[in-house]
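In this supplementary section we document a worked example of the pipeline. Step one takes a protein sequence of length 336 as its only input; no multiple sequence alignment statistics are reported here. Step two produces a three-dimensional model, which step three serialises into structure tokens for compact storage. The input and output of this example are shown verbatim.
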Amino acid sequence: MTDKTHLVDHITGHRRMRRNRKADWTRRLVQESRLTVDDFIWPIFLSPGQGVVDPIPAMPGVSRMSIDRAVDAVKEAADLGIPAIAPFPDIEMDLRDPTGSHILADNLINQFTRAVKAAVPNIGIITDVALDPFTSHGHDGILREGIIVNDETVEQVVKAAVMQADSGADIIAPSEMMDGRIGAIRRGLDAAGHQDVGIMSYATKFSSGFYGPYREAINTGGLLKGDKNSYYISPANGMEAVRDAALDVEEGADMLMVKPGLPYLDICWRLKESFSLPTFAYQVSGEYTQIKAAAMNGWIDGERVMMETLLCFKRAGCDGILTYFAVEAARKLAKA
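The serialised model returned by step three reads:
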């Protein structure tokens, strides 16, 4: 028999990585990470009124919706198999004040939660208790003499968390990054009889430039006085992010979240490896808009990049992704 050994065989020791890539069936057989509709949480924006669908210029394809129209959209999401939604409200300016007191009223989030639970009872609702949609200064907490006061803010978000749970929220996801908030919310929920309501901690929320379109969506960008560096994590600090998450785990978080997503895939991996809790990434507005804008200009294949970035979160250890692409990606997966 003629020896057909090639120079490449000697160099690689007869190991060739391309054997497992040679055909579609082998690539599917050895695929390590898989994306399904079960991985999606859909963030949606709420608006006052009736019959409102208000497109957000900075987020092509995303609109603020009144509760009636949002419930219709949630029905479609549930039909596609999306497990959960995360509502964020655009509160009327005359209801915003320095302490964000309207979060303790029967506000858009709580009204929406009740409406969804009545119409689409099998979809999960994950609500935030950060004060930024409710404050006149755009910060996530109560502002006193130029300082975001930690403890008073925590007291308020605990009350808001109980009200959201009373309205039917399944998971509270506090994003305001105050120290001690997870333990305080856990105690508050349990005292109110909401032992079954979970907490998804925004365990590592970075002081990022990727939030701009979101702030347009809830109309806080023009209100913000100063920055959020005193309570968000510096993008430079990985170990601090892990320590922050560790404290939330100790205080009783059921799930962890990394925000933003794609620029912090290393943090996703580190949290999953460190704590073995369900770990999620928030593919934030700036990430979404970059992809949409580049695709609209013909610079990238938007659909392909959408699916690639979502799959990357899975590879990095995430159990799921909060993404504005949820419905679009779910439709694509349904056709696959």
